[in-house]
């Protein structure tokens, strides 16, 4: 093993150099010059070394300063309040301080890079979502965002994450909305037998692309087109449903008119079942297909052709129904004229039979409404007619001198007479109420209230004539009673003068019937049949002949002067 050379010092070498110079014979001046040169060279070496060392120190200080500056910048960018100070935290030589700074700086740079990567991921997602929502992504992927490395704080990152979450929520809501609308389109297409893919492709190709490289479009314009497609399909669905419902109603109407067999009707049950269906109701697949609608239209057209051949019969049936309604409420209608007009219209072929039938339905509806408005009045007319008949019977009954004789049916006649008097007593109030009703009806309808049994008459005129004749009868009865009083008074005066007993004006057996009053119950001239035109069919009141006949029971002298009515009334008192 080789030994290391012995260590030589500057002093030993100078001493050896002095020996060598002595042996050589160098003078002192030369020796001093050479020693000075050696010292100068040695000083230069030291000076150079000092400069190098000073430069090394400056570099270390600069490196350390840069490190500290980077640490401060990174800490500031990361948003950490912790500061790093060489004086306060490091201590020791520069190399020791640098040895302490380097791992800290390396760790901070690693954290900064991680934070930058996190920012890039979040910002890239934000930019992409913005592009998807705005629709610019269709022009290509967005440019990656630049991260601001001067602000990498967790607070800033949280703001970006919050923004990203909002955009993700917006995207999810849009996807849900798209999903609902696509399902709606799918359902409508099933109802109307439409191509779902074609309808979706019209909105946006991304809705039907298989193995798509890009995400489904969620832009505002796509959502607007999708909503427009749903609206247009809904409108088309409503139109088809409305058309089918009209066709279904027409089918039912035609079936009823044509007496179509049930087995034939069942072929279109799927159509008639939609008549009362709401547009928002879920309906079977293919129920609104265009081919089905065309098929129903063909069937309706076929039935309409058959209907035309039977329409004349149907119109005439409606005419009979209209006549029955008018007849039920005693209204006049020129049936022969109406039938002749209808036959001429139908035979000419110029009239639309459907419109003609619709017009007849309208007339029937109005006739029913008109009949309903007359119903109450007609009911009162029936009561008045019944009371008039009973009034007529009661007059005949009370003129019968043998009505109290014990004979067959006398008891029943007495009971009927009591009921008749009660009914007749109500005639004035019944007439007053009936007249008021008729006047109100005529004022409301603007036409006279006509009543037709044998011939058309105005009911109000008939009532007024009946009332007038009734008053005339009451006046005749009053005069008859006054005449009777005069006769009895004359007979009494003759008996007092000549001492004779006056004979009664009627046989003793002819008593006044029970319950008979002296005014309205003693009336005559009511019809003996149930007709409203009673003035045309009534027996007249007491004629002059009947008055003379009533006066045959006593003779009134020619020179007899009757007392005035007031005097006779006072004498009766």
TrEMBL record:
This is Microtubule-associated protein MAP65-1a. Keywords: Coiled coil, Microtubule. GO terms for biological process: microtubule cytoskeleton organization. The lineage of its organism: Eukaryota, Viridiplantae, Streptophyta, Embryophyta, Tracheophyta. Residues 43-70 form a coiled coil. GO terms for cellular component: cytoplasm; microtubule; spindle. GO terms for molecular function: microtubule binding. InterPro entries: MAP65_Ase1_PRC1. It comes from the Eukaryota.
